[in-house]
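Q: Convert this sequence to structure tokens.
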Amino acid sequence: MPLAPAPGPPAPPPAAAYPTDAPRSSPPPTQVTLQETPEAPVRTAAPPPTSVAQPPSVSPASSSALSSADSSSLAASSDDGAPVTKKDKTDGLLGPFRIGVLVGSGLPSIVSFGGMIKLTRYFGAGVNVGLIPSIKLSLYGDAQLSYQEYDLYARIFPLGGMLFLGAGVGYATMKGSFKSSYDVSALQSLAPTLPNPLSVESQGSVRTLVLTPTIGLLHTFSSGFTLGVDLGAQIPIAPSATHYSTNLPPSLPAAIETQYVQPNDKKVQDTIDKVGRTILPTVNVRLGWLL
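A:
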């Protein structure tokens, strides 16, 4: 009787027959490099949307103007960040410092001249010489008058412009003379040597310390030409003694002196006293050049 073939190994059960928690054989590990496994980006939560104001549109012309303004502002700043003031139109060759001469005319000085400096836009000082070159002014009296004044003055320009307040102090010297001729033929019997006509010349002088407060306008153009006007008052502070003299022929009778000489002297005295011992108004127009 023929022999039956030996039975083979049992067939593996289907995959579903394995329990889910049964261990599985894992494939061999694969070597990877860091270049092949880049780090995954970290995702962060996006912030909530907010409304952003859009910048205004700028035209090319506006952008060029802004660029020029920026460059100007940069040019106008110094290395340490401090702004640099633009050149003032009133500045001269030496900036706000100016120096020059002024001449003028007015009262009581008929002619005046002197020098002036401006240290800044707000402060100036100078020296002034005023003259009355032997002239007769009915405002001061009947005598022929000569006048000299020397003073130092300071001026403050509170707004940095034309308006100024100032004061000067100095000495004023006034000299007056009055000369007359009289017919003394009826009196020659009393003094046979008396000349006819009789010439009488009276002279006087006074020197006094004066204070002169002023207010005015003074403008200097860019070229340096300067024009101004000022008003004030000349105030005597310490008048000195007044001196008088009269040129007379020798041996003059007292009657003639009383009748002719004393009235002549009084005219000189009145003029000198008014100029040298009373407050006088001052007005001057000045022009000159300040470099």
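The chain has a mean pLDDT of 75.
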